[in-house]
């Protein structure tokens, strides 16, 4: 079987593992916090989304590198 | 099974890539006047006319436009300015507000029908916005503490055991002068690039499937539906990225203002 494509995409797949786990942990902590103290939503939400965006960016750097390193 | 082999009449599915972000020149053969440049100009026109319209008939009980304008301004001033920077926040609000509006409008271009291109998915534009934030936080740091003390605080954070400086100093220098600007601009660029690519995959895929066999047509419609659904997901990401960029700029400014960083 002949496969074509770039190995860089596999690298991108690998680079999403860490951010994937990180995003899961962030939202797990967020949901935990909400379950314990529902009135803290206003305080927790921006922090959760900031953390999510910071972690997600790492996966996207992988995507950019997959395109750059042909 | 689903993939079809390429034939002369059917070239097979061509996946979208970085080439779909390159636009031909609009007028003549000037390489500078392309779609993103037009969109940047358009965004400035949109923002200024919106803000002028929102503030023209100022009233104590705000009208609809004034309410929208004040809502955006209040968000930036209170949650990004006051809560992050602290007592000296007021003089940075214009900068933060401009950055926020500029990035927000340019990102939302990505899902506006007929425009459908987020300007910030060209790396040059986030870098240009980043330079404002980068220069500002270094400038005010130097202005507040003086050049020597500012650099000394960056290199040797006070209140830390001496041997730790061996590791901390290179990391801190790298953080302040390389990683911060790099990640600030790359994060915005990569998010917009990836988001636009995602939409392209579903739109191109739908187009290709609809032009294929009968069963594929159904899948093609589904693919277009996904593209529409993901557009709304993208709207969330686009607003979030504008917010994150401004928030991090505010955090860096707050860091430069703080004593001993």
Explain this structure to me?
The complex is a heterodimer of chains A (70) and B (261). Chain A is 81% helix and 0% strand. Chain A is mostly helical. Chain A has one domain (8-68): F1F0 ATP synthase subunit C (F1FO ATP Synthase), CATH 1.20.20.10. The longest helix of chain A has 28 residues, at 41-68. The radius of gyration of chain A is 17 Å and the shape is elongated. The two termini of chain A are 23 Å apart. The mean pLDDT of chain A is 87. Chain B has 261 residues and is mostly helical. Chain B is 69% helix and 0% strand. The radius of gyration of chain B is 23 Å and the shape is globular. The model of chain B has no long low-confidence stretch (mean pLDDT 87). The interface between A and B is medium-sized, with 12 and 16 residues.
Tally of DSSP helical segments of chain B: 7
Radius of gyration of chain A: 17 Å
Largest interface: A-B, 12 and 16 residues
Looking at CATH, the homologous superfamily of chain A is F1F0 ATP synthase subunit C
How many β strands of chain A by DSSP? 0
Major pleated sheet of chain B? none
Cα distance spanning the termini of chain B: 59 Å
Q: How far apart, in Å, are the first and last alpha carbons of chain A?
A: 23 Å
Q: Give the helix proportion of chain A (percent range).
A: over 70%
Oligomer: heterodimer
Helix/strand order of chain B? HHHHHHH
Strand-residue fraction of chain B? under 5%
CATH architecture of chain A: Up-down Bundle
Strand content of chain A: under 5%
Would you state the CATH class of chain A?
A: Mainly Alpha
Strand-pairing-aware structural class of chain A: mainly alpha
